[in-house]
Design a protein that fits this description.
Order of helices and strands: HEEHEEHHHHHHHEEHHHHHHHHHH
Number of domains: 4
Strand order of the largest sheet: 1-2
Number of strands: 6
Shape: elongated
Radius of gyration: 29 Å
Distance between the termini: 85 Å
Length: 417
Amino acid sequence: MDVKRTFLNGYLKEEVFAELPPGFQDKEFPEYVFKLDKALYGLNQAPRSCFDLKGYSDADFGGCSIDRKSKSTTYTEKILNRIRSLGAKKLSYAGRLTLINSVLNTLYNYWANIFIFPKGVIRRIEAVCRNFFWDGCAEYHRVPLVKWDTITLPKNEGGLGLKNVTISNTATVAKLVDWLYCKADRLWIKWVNQIYLKQQDWHDYEPTADVTWTWKSICKVKELMKPAYADGQWMPDTRGYTVSRGYDWLRLHQAKPIWFGTVWSNWNTPKHSLISWLIKNNGINTREKLFRIGCSNSDRYCVCEAAPETQEHLFFECGYSKLIMNQIRDWSKLQLLVTRDIRTAGSTTQQGVYALVLTDSYYHVWVQRNNARINAVLVSPKRVVQMIKDSVRHRIKVKRNDHMSSVDMNWLCTLEN
């Protein structure tokens, strides 16, 4: 048996013994040898040993395969179990967004650096993350309020900054493609050159029909990334390939929306920003929208019953909302409640406070609308205005610092009184 070749690529079940390296022999037992207990990190036998220890198949983990395409759901089950343990049903959208970025995406990023995920597993991962964001659980049977393709855009392009798992997986696999272009001094590269490339030029290489699914996947990614390489270098005018640069190169880019500064100002309360983002993406389930698809018996706004409940009527045209907005405008001297464009504000501090007031107003009007519809209770405009003021004052106390100008400080003092 060719032990070296089998250890690198085969299904090694035999007991393996190795000589002690020079300087490590036991003086009392110089004839002793090591018995292989665990595979060495970085070689193909390492993950196989991991699978054996964890009870998985020796060629199957995380829904993907070492040398063949697999339909296993082991990895997605890990995410589902994590979701069940989070208990996020009552979290706001902002809380769920944070958990997806900090917990679920971390799980994916770790394993994506080790395995290539089949398309079926990627679709399942996206479905689980999408369902968790909208409903706090793994299953969600209603139509999402905003397209997932929009959600996975960066915030400065109209999205929420979540990763597109399909593109992320391609960008991660492209790291292997870049190693082959750069002829990196790695054991895996030497093995690939010996088994597959055999002195062929990587840029023009085409796989044969009898190669493994994993190798075919790497070659497909290479064809996709070809336009970015010149003379074996990733975009020669840059600092080389990284997964984040590859992701940015692969994804579609959108223009920066004019409302970006208003919705995502660092003055805003995160959950208020999410509601404002939904409004800007027409993601609010108004009665007019529900009536059009047959999910409501009326399109009238439940507060005034005077007109169809559109976003424009709900937040700006209804007498209830208009009274709230006018009182907040008079209190804050905020004409942006009419123009809704933060760019017409003055200093950076004023822009931040204007965004804060606007998003807080959106949020509290929306809460009162839901309260009226679900609980048949409507709080007076005067009380809602006071709640908005209290919320704004609290954030001002948190965000105030000594670097603000005296004009801004005096203006903030007037809002706090």
